[in-house]
Amino acid sequence: MELYQLETFLAVAREQSFTRAGEILGLTQPAVTRQIAALERDLGVELIERRGRSFGLTAAGRVVEEQAAQVLAAAHQLRSRVQSMSSPKHGEVSVACVTTVGLHTLPSLVAEFASRYPDVRVRVWSGRMDGVIDRLLDGRADVGLVSAPVSHPHVLTLPLFDDPVIAVATPEFAEKLPRPLPVETLGELDLILFESPSRFRSLVDAALQNAGVLPRIAMELDSHEAVRQAVLLGRGLALVPQQAVPDDLASGRLVRIEVRGLDPIVRRTCLILRRGDNLELPPIRNFVWLTLARYASGVWRREVIPA
To answer: What is the DSSP string of 176-234?
Structure first.
């Protein structure tokens, strides 16, 4: 079994096509077929169901798909770590983050890191919080950036900054509302909210429930960017993380609505690490220290980070 065979198999499984996998990998379709056949011979099982033009993985194929991703990630991490140890100013840092952090916090952080360490490659993955945690725990990410503290025995959480959740609307929508807006009036307006179930929505729902508000939901969307776009169209009032709309507030495209009687809602952006990692690799250690210095200066110091 060779690593390149596993990489080819994953491409075939992902694309559900030998031809498209070959195009991505720079291989001919016959070469892809030969590699998959060799992998099947080595494992002694069929991995792909061949029924005319239909495509599907066998039960063994699904197992190999899951394990191959972990094997390739481990091999990549091994290569990166060895290279980093022999060349401290080179190497790679893999960062997994939630989407909002990826859009609004990470770009300037990566830019500053790149200016200091131009020969270190930064790989970024963004998605939902459970995906960030999974990637950190299985080694596909060196560090994680999330929007809430993580309670897990193998994860160390380092708070960075608080991000208030605010009510926003277009100036045209807002001018029809009393200012400040009584919380009981909030239940009479069309609300644009992040989808449920989610950690963010649970945070918002709990605050509304505590205030006795039964929300009239006009839109439920699967990203804060989608919520932002909908509120910019004047479709209602939205509850969003402040870091998702700084440019809109500064330009006046959106205005913040003070809601009287609604308790403050706050998300806490955190850096997460695998508990027990000693940060011996210079690129990872430098990224962590830069992040802590940038967002939590004076709070976290090297000597107080527990093992």
So the answer is: TS-SSEEHHHHTTSEEEEE-SSSHHHHHHHHHHHHTT---EEEEEESSHHHHHHHHHTT
Task: Tell me how crowded residue 188 is: count the other CB atoms within 10 A of its CB.
Answer: 10
Nearest to 227 by CA among 105, 263, 186, 236: 236
φ, ψ of residue 127 to 5 degrees: the values are 175, -150
Phi and psi angles of residue 148, each rounded to the nearest 5 degrees, phi first:
-165, 150
Helices 59-86 + 282-295 axis angle, to 10: 90
Query: Distance (Å, rounded) from C-alpha 84 to C-alpha 267?
Result: 34
Contacts 24+ apart (CB under 8 A), 115-120: 116/286, 116/290, 117/89, 117/283, 117/286, 119/89, 119/90, 120/89, 120/90, 120/91, 120/92, 120/93, 120/283, 120/286
Q: In this predicted model, what pLDDT tens digit does every residue of 91-133 receive, in sequence order?
A: 889 999 998 899 888 999 999 999 999 989 899 999 889 999 9
CB atoms within 10 A of CB 19: 12
* Residue 77 pLDDT greater than 80, yes or no: no
| Cis bond upstream, residue 153 (ω within 30) | no
Query: What's the number of CA atoms in the CB half-sphere (13 Å) around residue 25?
Result: 25
Separation of alpha carbons 188 and 177, rounded Å:
11
Phi, psi of 245 (to 5 degrees): -135, 30
- Is the pTM higher than 0.85? The answer reads no
